[in-house]
Amino acid sequence: MILLLAAFVSMIDRSVMPPLVPVIADDLGVDLEAIGLSLTVYAVSYAAFQLAWSTLAARFGRVRILVLSTALGGVANLATAAASDPLTYSVARGVSGAMFAATITTVLIYYGDTLAITKRAVANANLAAAISIGLATGTVGAGAIAQWFGWRWVYVVIAAFSFALVTVLPRLSDAAGTTGERLMPSLRRLAANRWAVSILVFTVVEGALLVGVFNYLAVALQATGANVLVAGAATSGFGAAVVIVSQLMRLILGHWPAWVLMLVSGIAIVCAYLLMAVVTSLATVLAAAILLGLAWAAGHTTMQTWMTDAATDSRAIGMSFFSIALFVGASIGAAVGNVAAGAHRFGVLFTVATVVAVGYAVVTSVARARYVVRE
Q1: By C-alpha distance, which of 299, 238, 279, 276 is closest to 353?
Q2: Per-residue pLDDT at 177
Q3: SS (H, E, C) 285-320
Q4: Residue 200 above 80 pLDDT?
Q5: Residue 251 has pLDDT above 90, yes or no
Q6: Which of 2, 86, 105, 6 is closest to 46 using CA atoms?
Q7: pLDDT grade, residue 282 (50/70/90)?
Q8: Distances from the Cα of 353 to the Cα of 279, 346, 350, 356, angstroms
Q9: Mean pLDDT, rounded, of the chain
C-alpha cells in the first residue's frame, strides 16, 4: 500500500503540469512555448535519472533512496511555487521530475523480484490503478485549485503530500527488493537481448503517444476558450478510464492473450487521436482521454509485464531502461507538442500521432503474438 501511495503522489506531480501551462503563461506574461518547455524538461529529467537512482538504490537501499528522493521532490515543488519566470519554473520542474524518477521503477523491480509473472500482471494492474487515480486527481485538482486559489498553491499541496509520504516510507523493508545486479554485466546482457531492446523501442513510441502528446489535449482545449478547470476535468477521463479498465482486466487476465491486449490498446490510441485530428472540443477531448486511458490500462501494463519477463537476467537495469524509454518518448512527444502549440497547429500534431499509432498497433501486437514467455 505504501508503494502504491508513492506512485500516486509521483503521478500527481506529473499530471498537474499540462492544464497549468496556459494559466502560468498568462500569469507570467509569456507565450505558451516558454512554459510548455517545462513538460519536455520534466520528461528528460525523469528519464535521465532512472539509471542513477537504480544504481544508488542498489548501493544504499531502495527505501533510503525513496525517502531522499521524495523529500527533495517536495522541496522542488516549493521552489516551483515560488518561481517568477519561465526559466526558474522549468528548472524547478526538472528537479522535481528527476527526484520522482526514483518511484515507479522501484515498485516495478520489487514486483519483478517477488512475484510470479501471473501475479505480476495483477500487481501491475493495481499499480496502474494507483497511477491513474494520481493522474485524475492531479488534473482535476490542478484545475480546481488554479481556478479558485491560483496555480502556485497546486505545488504547495504537492509538497505537503510529499513530506507526508516521507513519514511513512521508512516502514518499508529493503530485504525483498535487493537484487545485487552489477551494472556493466547487466547492461551487456540487456543490449544482447533482442526482445528486451525491441520492447524498449516500442516503449519510446508509447511514451510519445500516451504521455508526451497526451499532455497537449488540455492545452488544445484551452486554446478553444475553455478554462483550466474544464480542461483538467476533461483530461481526467484518462485516469478514470484506467481505474475502471485496470479493475476489469482482473476478469480477462489469463483468458485473453497478451497480443490481443496490445491490439486493443493500439486501436484505442488510433481512435483517440483521429477524433482530435477531426475537431477539438470538450466532447472529443473527454472521449480521447478515456480511450487513451483504456490504452494505458490494457497496453502499458501488458508491456510492463512483458519487459519483466524478457529481461529476467537483468531485471533491475531492464526496468530502469523501461522507464527511461517511456520518458524519452514522452520528451519527444512533448517537444513536438510544444512546437505545435506555439504555432497553433494542434490538428497537424494529432494527425501525425494517428499515423504513428497505426504502426504502433500493428507492430506491437504482432511482436507480442510471436513472443514465448520465459518464466
Answers
A1: 276
A2: 46
A3: HHHHHHHHHHHHHHHHHHHHHHHHHHCHHHHHHHHH
A4: yes
A5: no
A6: 105
A7: very high
A8: 14, 11, 5, 5
A9: 87
The string of DSSP letters for 142-207 reads HHHHHHHT-THHHHHHHHHHHHHHHTTGGGS-SGGG-----HHHHHHHHHT-HHHHHHHHHHHHHH
Residue 79 is placed in which grid cell?
Answer: 521552489
Yes or no: say if 315 and 112 are a contact pair by the CB < 8 Å rule.
Answer: yes
Given a cut of 90, whether residue 217 has pLDDT beyond it is: yes
Grid cell for residue 252: 480477462
Q: What 3-state DSSP class applies to 215?
A: coil
How far apart are the two ends of the chain, measured CA to CA in Å?
Answer: 26
Confirm if 234 and 221 have CB atoms less than 8 A apart: yes
Q: What is the pLDDT of residues 19-75, one digit of tens each?
A: 899 999 999 999 888 998 999 899 899 988 987 887 787 778 778 888 999 999 999
Give per-residue pLDDT as tens, 301-350: 889 889 988 887 777 778 778 888 998 998 899 889 989 988 889 999 99
Q: Amino acid letter at 67?
A: V
Cell (9 digits) for 130: 494507483
How far apart CA 179 and CA 184 sit, in angstroms, is 14
Residue 346 Cα distances to 31, 218, 351, angstroms: 16, 11, 9
CA distance 246 to 262: 14
With a cut of 90, say whether residue 279 has pLDDT above it. yes
CA separation (Å) from 351 to 3, 233, 259, 279, 287? Answer: 37, 24, 25, 11, 16
Q: Burial of 83 by CB count in 10 Å (0-12 exposed, 13-18 middle, 19+ buried)?
A: buried
